Amino acid sequence: MAQEPGATDSPEGRTVKAPHTSTELSDLATLKALAQPRRQRMLQHLTVHGPATSATLARALGLNTGATSYHLRELARYGFVEEQTEATGHGRERWWRAVPGDRRFPPRSRQSPEMRLVMDELNHHAYAADLELFEQLQLQAQAQPQMDAGGDPWADAFPYSRGSIRLTLPELRAFFEEYIALLNRYKRPEGNTPPGARTVLTRFLAFPAPDAAPASHPEPHNRTESDPS
Cα 171 from chain centroid? Predict the structure, then answer.
């Protein structure tokens, strides 16, 4: 029987869900370490492409090996990456991988002025990196139009949704936790990943609509536009 994503086998042979825990990153030094632009780029590369050496990262990101080695050590110091200890078949090279986890940031109301500056910088680089990744994929698709004719089964793998719903603040928090729970249902160890699976980047963004004067003909609420292709 196929194992449910995110589940593990117990000694008795039963399939059980792995416990889910989240970690709040409230230490300013940790946030500053993560907000460094080069480290964000390196962490993104490890997340998207898998384990790499400092030399591999240097070539991919246009950096020198000394810089990538330093930033990898700093990321490891704060628990964002770790050295891959299993045999890799590449001699004595040091391979690094991203450490998965549900990392949360303190709500803005609990952030100090200095922390807010760090968080704004971190988010600015993160959003820009996400947009750059998506545009890269769009350019690849434009350069290979033959893939749209059925040659690439992943050509339609762009589910998209925009919507608006009326929520209280507690309901919004519950909505977010349900989204995280859905992601965790599909997480599983690398060894349990079926053939043909690819890394799929997911992004969640929700924010209250800006205040505005009432329109003479207000639009209906709970509107959703989706493209589940």
Answer: 23
